[in-house]
Specification:
This protein is α+β, with helices and mostly antiparallel strands. It has helices at residues 4-17, 41-48, 156-163, 170-174, 185-194, 208-227; strands spanning 23-28, 51-53, 57-59, 62-69, 80-85, 90-95, 105-111, 117-122, 128-132, 269-273, 276-280. The strands form three sheets. Strands 2, 3, 4, 5 and 9 form a five-stranded antiparallel sheet that branches. A four-stranded antiparallel sheet has the order 1-7-8-6. It has a two-stranded antiparallel ribbon with strand order 10-11. The structure holds zinc ion. Zinc ion (ZN) binds at residues 261, 263-264, 266, 281, 283-284. Residues 261, 263-264, 266, 281, 283-284 line the site of zinc ion.
Length: 298
């Protein structure tokens, strides 16, 4: 599943290749791709054709393109947006409009300049797109998603305070998109390893310094993954030009059960975690019994 760095890589590609261009057609090839657009595929197509993309936005793993009629003139700003979520396997790919349309293309956008078209390809169809009237600044349906640690709006002190008020395991708290967005399974495990914290430690048991160290580790891991173009943990994740990222080579613990910890050599351990896995180093990230600050107060 694409995580924040992968989605950010796609956003940057769209910023370079789509902003300033006018959509000539938005062709829905599979209605499931626009299931969240309640007015239906025809309305989606009609709403977008003729609109110019004026920018790109991302909140967590959602992307949006502010769109407006005509070309942006002085004092006029986009009000509406094309919202997209890549789901488990979604890709936004640019290329020659004449190339064959693969069976997994769900929505195809062509542009008035006859340049590269944009194809929303999604083998597993968990991704979706919608036209959001009034959504240019921040589409309302994603306003509940917290800023991610790389977002200029991220309030570190507030997040540390909220994190330390949770009784849940730290990894559960890290994956809660209403607390902090954009951290999925892979980067949570990597950040916990860097911060030398066990995933099952109650968030409420973290000291302020540990919570700060953890958020710093999250930001570091996400930043490095972004620089590497993301992690291509399967063949489905690619940037807008169809290229894979290479952060997978830098993973210390994720998917490395039994391999030596890069820091101390102890074999990496895998634990079942919410129908998935949690990877950690038993020596660097010992599971210690901790009392939460709230323990005993009731
Ligand atoms: Zn270790």
């Amino acid at each position: 599943m694409p995580e924040l760095p992968e989605v950010e890589v796609v956003r940057r590609g769209l910023e370079l290749h789509v902003v300033g261009r006018t959509i000539s057609s938005a062709q829905v090839l599979h209605p499931r791709a626009v299931r969240r657009h309640v007015a239906g595929p025809d309305d989606f197509s009609a709403a977008l054709s003729g609109l110019t993309v004026t920018g790109t936005g991302r909140r967590g793993k959602y992307l949006w393109l502010p769109v407006m009629e005509g070309t942006p003139a002085e004092r006029s700003v986009a009000e509406d947006a094309l919202l997209a979520h890549l789901g488990m396997s979604g890709q936004l790919l640019l290329g020659d409009p004449e190339r064959p349309v693969s069976p997994h293309v769900r929505v195809r956008f062509t542009f008035t300049d006859a340049g590269p078209d944009l194809r929303f390809t999604d083998q597993r169809t968990f991704g979706h797109m919608a036209f959001v009237a009034g959504g240019a600044v921040l589409p309302s349906m994603i306003a509940h998603i917290a800023p991610d640690p790389m977002d200029p709006d991220f309030d570190e002190a507030a997040v540390i305070g909220r994190l330390r008020s949770r009784r849940a395991a730290i990894k559960v708290a890290l994956l809660d998109q209403s607390l902090v967005s954009g951290i999925g399974n892979i980067y949570a495990d990597e950040a916990l390893w860097r911060a030398k914290l066990h995933w099952a430690t109650p968030a409420a048991a973290l000291t302020r310094a540990e919570a700060g160290r953890l958020l710093a580790a999250v930001r570091e891991v996400l930043g490095e993954a972004l620089t590497a173009g993301g992690t291509s943990f399967d063949s489905l994740y690619v940037n807008v030009n169809g290229e894979s990222g290479y952060f997978g080579r830098s993973l210390a613990v994720y998917g490395r059960e039994g391999e030596p910890c890069p820091r101390c050599g102890t074999p990496i351990r895998r634990d079942p975690f919410m129908n998935r896995s949690a990877y950690s180093c038993p020596a660097c990230q010992p599971r210690t019994r901790r009392r939460t600050r709230h323990a005993g107060r009731r």
